[in-house]
Amino acid sequence: MSFKLTHDIKILKANEYSAIFKGGKLAKGKHWQIIAKPIKSPKPRLGLAISKKVHRLAVDRNRFKRIARETFRLERLCLDNWGFVVMARRSKPAKNAVLSAELLSLFKKVSKNEISITVPH
Question: Where are any strands of DSSP class E within the chain?
């Protein structure tokens, strides 16, 4: 099994993002916010929405993207067929390990149906 993030694992199109935003489950942490929805694909999929309004500097946005992709890549075998859209929240700087651990716990909460908050349309 390859751990590469191929094109079919990434959420790239606007209609795929909007499908997850409509009726997806929302999970918030201190540094991250995830919206997730079950999908028909046999593999989990990842989309990133790291805003300039939240992290003004490109280096900060790229760091959050790198951590999100790496965490998803390493743990995607444990995740079911969900589409995840990951967003960064405004927060104080934290170490990469802390960011990764929080994101992993949010992935698992959502995929285990421990979150019941749905995103309003």
Answer: 25-28, 32-38, 45-48, 82-88
Describe the strand order of the beta sheet including 82-88 as a list of residue ranges: 25-28, 32-38, 82-88, 45-48
The residue type found at 14 is A
Determine the CATH number of domain 9-111: 3.30.230.10
Each domain of the chain, given as residue ranges in start order, spans 9-111
On whether the CB atoms of residues 33 and 87 are closer than 8 A, the answer is: yes
Residue pLDDT, tens place only, 34-71: 999 999 988 999 999 999 999 999 999 999 999 999 99
The model's pTM is 0.88
Residue 24 has pLDDT above 70, yes or no: yes
Structure-block tokens of residue 7? 């094109």
